[in-house]
Amino acid sequence: MSEETDEYTDQIGWTTSGAETVLSDLKDIEEVTKKEPETLTHHCSMCGSRMQIPRPKRERYRVICAHPECGHEDRIGF
User: Fold this and answer.
1) Taking the domains of the chain in order of start, what are their residue ranges?
2) What is the pTM of this model?
3) Per-residue pLDDT of the chain (78 residues; tens, 9 = 90+)
């Protein structure tokens, strides 16, 4: 090959515009993965019915069974 037709140039390293977009996308993914579900599934210890309850903000909380014939109160964290 002659040097006149050879137009290959060596480029080493990261391009700044491409790296910035990749890093900004990663920050958005971390925010989404850290989000916890807003509800919990709770099983009544008396009748076994399953209930969707909002995620409690405290360590200790009470759940009253929604089944009309049960009405049992589960205490969690006491």
Assistant:
1) 37-78
2) 0.51
3) 555 677 767 677 766 555 455 556 555 555 656 677 889 999 999 999 999 999 988 999 999 999 999 999 999 988
